[in-house]
Structure formats: C-alpha cells, structure tokens
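# nightly structure sweep
# worker-07 picked up a monomer target from the shared queue
# config: single-sequence mode, recycle default, output format = structure tokens
# input follows
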Amino acid sequence: MMLIYLLFFTLAALNNLQSQDMLSEEKSSYRPPTAAGSFYSNSRSELLSSINEYLNKEKPIISKEEEIIGIVVPHAGYVYSGWVAGFAYREIIGRKYDAIVLIGPSHITHFRGASIFDGDAYTSPLGASLIDKKLAGMIAENSESINISRKGHGWNGGRAEHSLEVQIPFLQVVQPNVPIVPIIIGSSNFESADELMLSLVKAIKESNKKVLLIASTDLSHFHNQEKACAIDQSLIEDFKKFDYFKLAKDLASSKKEACGSSALLTVMMAAEQLGGNLPLNLKHATSAESPYYPGDTNRVVGYLSGALLKSKNPFIELPNFSEEEQDLLKQIAQNSVRSKILRIKDSLPFKIENKNLNLNLPAFVTIRKKGALRACMGHTSTELPLYEEISHSAQVASTEDSRFGPIKKNELADLDFEITVLSRMKRVVELSQIQIARDGLYIRLGSYGGLFLPQVPVEQKWNLTEYLENLCYKAGLQKNDYLNPKAQLFSFRAFVID
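# output follows
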C-alpha cells in the first residue's frame, strides 16, 4: 500500500509539474525546466542515467569528517561539463544540509545587485525543488540591492537563463528535498559580490541553518586548448590560495576569465566568513576534453569543480622562512637598490632554485636611514616569484616613494632594510576580527585606498580605534570612514624579515 501511495504521489507531482510548465511566467510560481532538451535531456530516465554516470565515474575524495561549506560547478550543456560537475556533486552525497544557496550569473540581462527568485520552486524533469522563502527573505532584507523578483529568472520572451537551472537535476539526486535559494547576480564586479556576501553571511548566521553555497560558473571562453588551460590554471591557483582579492583584480582587468565571476567571489568570501579554510581543486577540464562530446581544440570553454572546506588541516598562507632564506632575501633587496642607484648590473643570479623563494607572494620593502624611515613600497598581490618581487619592490621604493624622493649614492652605506612578506588579503566583516600586531590593514572606499603593515600600530602604540582612524587618514578619507557601509576593509598577515 505504501509503495502504491508513493507511486501515485510521484505521478501526481509530475502531472502538476507538467501543467505548471504550460503556464505563463506571470501565472506560474514554479519555474519550468527551460533548458531541458538542450542543456540536458528532457527524458526523466535519460537524465537520471546521465547524472548517475557522472557521479559514479570516480569515488569521493573528501573525508566525511571535513565539512563542505561551498562548491564551484560549471553550467554548460551536460555533454560538455556534466562529468566535471560530477566531481563536486559526488562529494556532497549523504551530507546533511538545511538549505542550499545557488548563485549564478545572468547571461541575458544585466542589472545592479542580485535577484532571488520570487516563486515557489525551480523544476526539472525530476520534479520540483522548493524555495526556502524564509531564508530568501532574510537575505533580501539585509541589502537594498538584493530583491526578490523574476529578474534574471524569467522564461518568457525568448532565451531563458540556464546557469542555475542546470544545477537543479544534480541537486535533486544528491540532496533530494533540500530547499534552495536561487540567486542571480546581475553584474560582474567585486562590489556586487561583496554586497551579496555580507547579506548572505548575516542571514545564514542568524538562521542557525547549515547551508551549502554553490557558485555556478564556467571559466575561460573560446581560446585554443593551450591558452585556455594557462588562463584557467592561473585562476585555479588563486582559488586554491583563497585569494579572492587578487582574483577580483585579475578578473576586472581580464587577465582571468569566469562568466560567473561574481558568484565565484561571493561564495569564496562567504564560505570563509562561515569557517571555510581550505579550497580544493577537484577537477579542471575544457569542452575539448569531454569524453561524451569532445569539441574543437581551437575554441574551448574551461570548467572547474571545486570545494571550500572547514578543515582540521587549513591552507597554510605563509611559509616559515629559514635564516638562510631570510638572509638571501635581504641580500636581494640590498643588491637591487645598489644596482638601481649606481646603474650597474645586478650581481645576483637571474634564477634562484628555492621553493619558498619562488612562491607568488606580495611583499613590501622598508628602507631606513640611521633608524628613520627613508622609503617603503610594495604590492598587495603579484604574479612574480618572491625573490623577483623583493627585487622589484626594493628598486621601486628606492626611486619612486614620493614622500621622500629618490635615494642618492651617498646614502647607500647608511641604509637598513626590512622585508615584509604578505599573506593574501582577507575581507574584514566585523572589527572584532582584527588583532593588533598580527594583522596589517588595507582600506578602500571609492577611488581612495590606504595600507598599514602590521608593525605600524605596534611601533606607534595605537589601540584599534587609533589604528583604523590613522588608516583612514593615510587613505585620504575622513577618520570614521572605516564605519561607512561602502568601505571595504581587508586584513593580512605578514612574515617580517629585519
């Protein structure tokens, strides 16, 4: 009797779904599967078969003791990227979540902020995924730029957005009956990602729900295989380092590509604020590598499956440099300044074979003359190996620090060098996250920005308020602008070599 009842219930639900599909956008509260028959099969049995094949190609690799807070998945047609998506989705099978927040880009219409679907469900040939309306409302009420609407989710009047819809069948298999919050971001920029992240984190913490975050994005588009892999691997390196700050800069300058860039940045930042400390690259491939429909190697799209964990073994941001390594870095700084000022060839070897010194880490070089500050310059992100970054920053500091002017030949004998190797930038959401002596700070508001190394508040004997106010002054802002909701505050840690 129970089996008959369940069968009847399933058939009734499917009949209801089919009737909903026929309704117009204005009359239906269930979003129909507009991509069925194109991005994935419109046959229930074929769709289930393909998803199960993608999920079962390999075994999960993440221990059940590790908490998965977020995943990154592609959104192309299943024959191209479904097998890549399977690498992330198989990892969440059997895990318990109270809700799933799906975030994707709008390929069709662009708008400010984000739009949460205002209906009751997203559907697929496998059934309906209901909306967690309470959580959706909590997210929307935290920001004026986040609305509950059909914008970005609509299906009448031509092409419909697919970036979230293609995730629904996977979720209905690996996380059945878990409610969702589908969010479309209307533009690709850090500000949109940051606003949504702040609202998400606040709502999730207040809800006391265990929430899975999903970023829907493809990577590079329409390069040849070799170039696409090079661009994508550079992005993946930033992902593996949790370096959304550098990633955002490179996406804005088109050094890296991801059509769902805002979704990716949002999920990375939100996952970190919710305890995430270990990003994993589960699989990267291109459309040309699909075992189901290999495409042209001269015009490919890149795909990533990734996970963001709360792990007992977090990502290590800075190495412990040995005394020998520290001495060599100081020598590089000194010789680089000397060669710049005297206009002679640098005596150091061009290539240094040392793992730590070849890490892509930003750095500042501080130059003092008889104990007084003479110059200090550096970068918040870099593509250079550390030893080259030190050399470049030292030379720039010696000639381009406008506060002091270029260093002269007769000063060289009186100079002392301090090197500060920086970790990645971490978004500060609450001032209680800042710890004096441990954290350097960077603030930006509009076109203004300023940075203090972690040594500065210690040397100046500032408390936290004084630290923040002086940071604002340095940035050319009013002293309380760190409290401005539009101000973006970042912290970083450092390894100081003096």
